[in-house]
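Thread: Newbie trying to understand structure tokens

Hi all, I'm a second-year student working on a class project, and my supervisor (Dr. K.) asked me to get a predicted structure for one chain before our next meeting. I've only ever worked with sequences, so writing a 3D structure as a token string is new to me. If someone could post the tokens and maybe explain what I'm looking at, I'd be very grateful. Here's the chain:
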Amino acid sequence: MKRHTLSFLILFICLLTIVSKTFAQSRFPKGKWWKHPEVLENVNLTEEQIQRIEKISGESMRKIIELEAKFKIARLDLESLLDQIDEKKLDLNAIEKQIEEVNRIKGELEKERIMMLARIRNVLPKETIQKLQQTRWKFRKGSRGQRERSFDNEFDKSEH
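---
Reply by user tm_fold:
Sure, no problem. This is what the structure looks like when written as tokens:
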């Protein structure tokens, strides 16, 4: 019974990670959003702002990549603890410590992502931040659908 509870907890953590990544990706285009044509068109970032954002992103992404790797390894180690079938009983203390480690690393990862955004935000004036928020809302509300319609229109033009 306890093994099922722990397996459920791990599954829940994995699903939470997937959902949070999906939610984060729906806000802005993937990758370097500050170079995306739609963002550039709506926000008017200066070259200096782009360079500062690039530097902040580069520094943070190194940390984020390292933390993502540590997170995956910690989850793998937790799965290994749960899969031990040689013993009659699982080492609940080791499992609990590993769950705490997984959560600690996940917390560091989320903290770094948020701090990166906060550092980027500090580079930008209030008006630019407001424009970014408006642009983000457009992406969330369905600019994807508009882009698809735009593509369809271009496709229709090329056929005639």
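A couple of things are worth pointing out once you decode it. The first helix runs from residue 2 to 25. The chain has one domain: 2-6+32-159. Feel free to ask follow-ups in this thread.
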